[in-house]
Each structure stands twice: as C-alpha cells, then as structure tokens.
C-alpha cells in the first residue's frame, strides 16, 4: 500500500522495538523485515533515525561487531526499559484500535 | 566545549574530514549539506554527542553495500536530518530559556 | 576582550581567543561575515552570554566548513544576516528560517546530485 508514511510515523518506533525484541538484529535487517511486512516505503535511513533515538533514550543495548562488507555493524537488543516501552506501545495500540473499531461500528 | 571537541582535538577532526572525503561523491554531498543544516539549527548533540561521527558510520556502512545515498535515506533529506535530532534540544532553545528564566518555546 | 571578560567571566576568554584564532584562518569574505555575525549575536548578550558560546561555535563551524569547500559566503548566509543570526539564537522568525534552511538543504542536495548526473 502506498502513502502510509504519515500514518505510520507514530507507530514505526513500536514496530522497530517489536522486531528487536525477537532477537538481536541490525538496521538493514530491521528495514528488510519491515519491507517484507508490506511497509515498502520504509528506507534504512528512517530506521536509523529511530535506532539513534532508542539508543539515546536508553531502550536498547548496542554491540559493535565486524561485518562481511565494510565497517563494523551495530547490533541491537532490548533492555528492560525497552521491553517496558514496547509493552506500553502495544497497550496504546490496543486502546486506539478498539476506539477506532467502536467509531466505525457506530457510524454504520 | 566546541564543535571541534566533538572529535577531541585537531587530529581527530582532520581524521573526520578525511573520512568524509573517502565517501562516494553522492554521500559526500548529502553528508556536508546535513552537517551545514545542523550547524545552523544547533542541536546539542553537535558538540557533546556523537551525532556527526555516528552519521558518518551509517553512511560508510551504506556506501559499502553499494547503495546510492538517496536509496539509503529517502528523497526527503531534511526529514531524515530532522529525524536525527527529533528529541534533541538546540542551543537556541537553551539560550531562549536562559533569558526568559524558564523553559519556553523559542521561535514563535 | 575586557567587555567579554566582564559579562562572561574569565574561563570564556580562552574559548573566545580560540574563536578568534579559527576566524583568522578564514578567507576574507567569511571573516567579514564572522565579524558581522559576532556583532549581531553579541547584541543579544546579557548575563547569560555563556549560552551564546555554542551558538557562535556552530556559526563558526559553518563558516569554516563552507570556506573549505570554496562556497561563496552569500550563498551560505543569504541577504539577511541579521535575521539569520536572530534565527540562530532562536529569536523572532526562527521557525521561518528553519523552514527555509530545510528547503535549502533539499534544494542543494537535488541540485548537486543532479550535477553528478545521478
């Protein structure tokens, strides 16, 4: 689906947290995962800005490891604060979608 | 604390410049324009953080995969740049707060 | 220098001297712009001159970086240096200037990448 960018903006951080919560991963792999999921407009740069923020806000653990090509790569895992943030994200998400469902049902 | 202290001292600053020069042309252009934008906006991460060196890491990684720079970060370079400093206070904000005596909103 | 001493304290004097050393290495056009920027920014200073130092530092960084790339100073700062400086300090018109800088960023990238033929 095209033109999701605006609507996706507020949720992308939660998506990235969810992906990292599964296993240790890095920016390019996260982007690929989002693209495969159908968010084809998401580029690595967008994911990078999110990762920078997650790191600055102390939600992830970062490890630098050598990669096959080019410079070392940063790998991310969630820490406790990150897991809490992720739980908060899904709680908010649930709240919003339940309200939206209600709105749509009521409108019919 | 100054811009040049970001990468402590002149030798590191020169090394930083050399790394920029080693990037492919398209990456160089975009890196420099973003850096210029940050010099004007003045996010605090400029001098006391790793904003610029990290961005350079990210660009080096991207360049190593053979991708074009806009493929990596998307066409809206300004949106990418703003994403990098989204949670970051600016020197202008700090100055404005200091003269108003309380946290305020600059640039009305 | 004594003016600066009075308002900011001695520890900033050294930082200030470092600015001047850096500024002296700039080409003439950029150096003149530095003097002008300094004049504007310092006109805001009161007891809190300390908080203007990082703003001046960034501005000087911009001048150094654009000078080393051989850019014309006019292209960097535009016509309204006073407005530019007010925006650097977050004063009136800062929002408008930020939008302008944002557009300038994308325009410059598009133009320069276009020239690459990419």
UniProtKB/TrEMBL annotation, chain A:
<dbReference type="InterPro" id="IPR005149">
    <property type="entry name" value="Tscrpt_reg_PadR_N"/>
</dbReference>
<feature type="domain" description="Transcription regulator PadR N-terminal">
    <location>
        <begin position="16"/>
        <end position="87"/>
    </location>
</feature>
<dbReference type="InterPro" id="IPR052509">
    <property type="entry name" value="Metal_resp_DNA-bind_regulator"/>
</dbReference>
<dbReference type="InterPro" id="IPR036388">
    <property type="entry name" value="WH-like_DNA-bd_sf"/>
</dbReference>
<protein>
    <submittedName>
        <fullName>PadR family transcriptional regulator</fullName>
    </submittedName>
</protein>
<dbReference type="Pfam" id="PF03551">
    <property type="entry name" value="PadR"/>
</dbReference>
<dbReference type="InterPro" id="IPR036390">
    <property type="entry name" value="WH_DNA-bd_sf"/>
</dbReference>
TrEMBL record, chain B:
<dbReference type="Pfam" id="PF06304">
    <property type="entry name" value="DUF1048"/>
</dbReference>
<protein>
    <submittedName>
        <fullName>DUF1048 domain-containing protein</fullName>
    </submittedName>
</protein>
<dbReference type="InterPro" id="IPR008316">
    <property type="entry name" value="UCP029876"/>
</dbReference>
UniProtKB/TrEMBL annotation, chain C:
<protein>
    <submittedName>
        <fullName>DUF1048 domain-containing protein</fullName>
    </submittedName>
</protein>
<dbReference type="InterPro" id="IPR008316">
    <property type="entry name" value="UCP029876"/>
</dbReference>
<dbReference type="Pfam" id="PF06304">
    <property type="entry name" value="DUF1048"/>
</dbReference>
